[in-house]
TrEMBL record:
This is Addiction module protein. InterPro entries: CHP02574_addiction_mod. It comes from Sulfuriroseicoccus oceanibius. It comes from the Bacteria.
Length: 75
């Protein structure tokens, strides 16, 4: 069995697209098995958020403004 440094060297020698695909597979394999109801709950939450934006109840803030505010607060 190869050692971690050997694996790392082999992985870094791969073309970028293959490294990305390998990482995606490893991350997917490491994810815990999700409760199907969690996905449904997120779908419901996404719909509620979209409805609030569409109705004007929620205010949209440009990402640049958000990051500027974060930088201002945490320096």
């Amino acid at each position: 069995m190869p050692t971690l440094p050997q694996l790392e060297s082999d992985i870094l020698a791969l073309p970028e697209n293959q490294r990305v695909e390998l990482l995606n597979r490893v991350f997917k394999a490491a994810e815990p098995v999700a409760d199907p109801s969690v996905g449904a709950a997120w779908e419901d939450e996404i719909k509620r958020r979209i409805e609030r934006v569409d109705s004007g109840e929620s205010k949209m803030v440009p990402a640049g403004d958000v990051f500027e505010e974060i930088d201002r607060r945490i320096g």
